[in-house]
C-alpha cells in the first residue's frame, strides 16, 4: 500500500510540473509549442492577453516633446483599421530614452478609456496627446 501511495504522489508531482496555470484570466493569443513537446525553463510557451483594459505603447515621443507630457494627460488614439478615435490617458512615461534613427525618443503608454468592437492586439494606432 505504501509503495502505491508513493507512486501516486510521484505521479501527482509529475503532473503538477507539466501543468501550466495562468496568473490571470485571459485569452490565449499565441501558442508556441505542440502537445508533448519538451520545453526549456524560460521558453515562451504561449501568450496570454487580457483583452479588457488594453493599452497603446508609443515609441516615438521626441525628447523635445516629452517635457510637455505628464501622467494623467488626456490622449486620443486613432485606430486605423477600425477608423475610430478612442479616448485615453497617459499611464506611463519611460524615464529612459531610446535612439531611433538618430533621434532620442521615449516610450509612452496610453490607457484606453473604452474598447471599440473589433479591437485586436497589434493593430496600428496613432496617438495624439493633449498638451497646453
Can you walk through the features of this model?
This protein is of the alpha+beta class and 132 residues long. The protein folds into 2 domains: 2-49, no CATH class; 55-129, Elongation Factor Tu (Ef-tu), domain 3 (Beta Barrel). 15% of the residues lie in helices and 39% in strands. It has 2 helices and 8 strands; from the N terminus they run αβββαβββββ. The strands form 2 sheets. Strands 3, 4, 5, 6, 7 and 8 form a 6-stranded antiparallel β-sheet that branches. A two-stranded antiparallel ribbon has the order 1-2. Strand 6 (98-100) and strand 7 (103-112) form a beta hairpin. It is elongated. The mean pLDDT is 90.
Number of domains: 2
Structural class: alpha+beta
The parts where pLDDT drops under 50 for at least 5 residues are none
Helix share, percent: 10-25%
Q: The biggest beta sheet, please? A: 6 strands, antiparallel
The overall pLDDT average reads 90
N-end to C-end Cα span: 77 Å
- By CATH, the architecture of the largest domain is named Beta Barrel
Order of helices and strands: HEEEHEEEEE
The CATH homologous superfamily of the largest domain is named Efflux pump adaptor protein, beta barrel domain
What is the approximate shape?
Answer: elongated
The level 1 CATH classification of the largest domain is Mainly Beta
- Look up the CATH topology of the largest domain: Elongation Factor Tu (Ef-tu), domain 3
Continuous helix count: 2
Strand content: 35-45%
Topology, number of strands: 8
C-alpha Rg, in Å? 22 Å
